[in-house]
Amino acid sequence: MVLHLLAEHIRTIRQHGEQAFPYEGCGILIGEIQAGDKLIHELWSVTNTWDQAENPLADGESSNRRFLIDPADFKRANDHAVRKGLGILGTYHSHPNHPAVPSEFDRQHAFPWGFSCVIVSVQNGKAEEVVSWILDEQDQPQREPMQVLEQVQLPSIPAFAG
């Protein structure tokens, strides 16, 4: 399975990471699975709510090392996606002054079920590498193949005869 994003999506993820620096920025990937690949149609940018009062995952770290997407934001993104015949296929977030590699916290809190986790490394305020990760059957992060498209080029699906 390959994650297909538009170049515009990559630019937006990079910009979001730079704007959020020195904190983690985050968002939701909305799209569809077609011909065995994930096709991202939209990004749903959200506020990192890690430092808000009722954080059930609080561990002493701040939003410059952690991100949290409010369940209400997930619901709004899901409702929006469903109205368009799409779904939530993953999340993205930035790693300020760290590589685009999942932390142990990322791994422990990642969605299983094939959700993508796109990470942009932001070094000293400048976005660098963007990488997608997915958990394998042992809940270990594996690099997910990613294809960046200049424009919408959806794979064709053979029509059923008959």
From TrEMBL:
Keyword Metal-binding: yes
Domain JAB1/MPN/MOV34 metalloenzyme: 2-147
Organism: Thermostichus vulcanus str. 'Rupite'
Keyword annotations of the record: Hydrolase, Metal-binding, Metalloprotease, Protease, Zinc
Domain of life: Bacteria
PANTHER family on file: CYSO-CYSTEINE PEPTIDASE (PTHR34858)
Name listed for the protein in its UniProt record: M67 family metallopeptidase
CDD domains hit by this protein: MPN_like
Record InterPro entries: JAB_dom_prok, JAMM/MPN+_dom, VirAsm_ModProt
Lineage, broadest ranks: Bacteria, Bacillati, Cyanobacteriota, Cyanophyceae, Thermostichales
